[in-house]
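Usage

Read records sequentially. Each one opens with the input sequence:
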Amino acid sequence: MKNLLLTIAMSVLGFTSFAATPTQSNKKMETIILVHGAWADVSSWDAVVPLLKAQGHEVIAVNLAGHGKDETSFAGITFKTYVDQVKEAIGTRTNVILVGHSFAGLVISQVAEEIPAQIHKLIFLAAALPHDGDSLLGLAKLDAGSHISKYLTIDKEHGAAIIAKEGAADIFAADAPQQVQDYIAANVKAEPLVPLATPVHLTEKNFGSIKKVYIHTTNDHAISYPAQQYMVKNSKIDKVYTLESSHTPFISMPDKLADIIITESK
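and closes with the structure output:
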């Protein structure tokens, strides 16, 4: 998907027109960590990363274990695996902005809970927005508008959550060009099951102290817009943005998404 998304971003979406000259400023640039969601991989961010780097930011996109080209056995992957990966990417950095898409909303929340002194802000992109004890599967049961359940198979024997190929484009990228939809349908991979069922452990002292931004996606078939609104209404969110996109605005409107992240990085 990596090369495909770059091609789409450049030829279909006019990516190059948005690449700006790095900002000349004495302001210390932020470190932005991007974390992809379930049934995806690090290539999700390919059209967004250059736009953020063009502003002078350090940008690190994390590929979670078992996703993309990573062949880690599902049997060895836990929710902690993901959290530790993001913490390793952060290292000793401070003033970090964490951006989590979809399922990664839980991952970045747990990271913020564990190292709050290093996190400046959390940006939830069409993401699960948890309270203590929530898991993705638990939150998904409350989302009557999601299309995932129509195409989801749980393979307990192999610890996998599987999206049927015929449903992948509808769920994740209904507004993408047809060639992208076809690619997604043909290449959607199974997702490790254990992390999806694992609850987060959050406190008001740590997670609750971090600034939070939510980016709504109004035409979302994975985490429905009403479900997103419900989560935001019942959480402490400092700023809300809205994109008229499917679940994957990094494909359909990477420029608009990057603009929001850049605004929140100032």
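Summary fields computed downstream for this record:
- Residues 1-26 have pLDDT under 50 and may be disordered.
- The longest strand covers residues 119-125.
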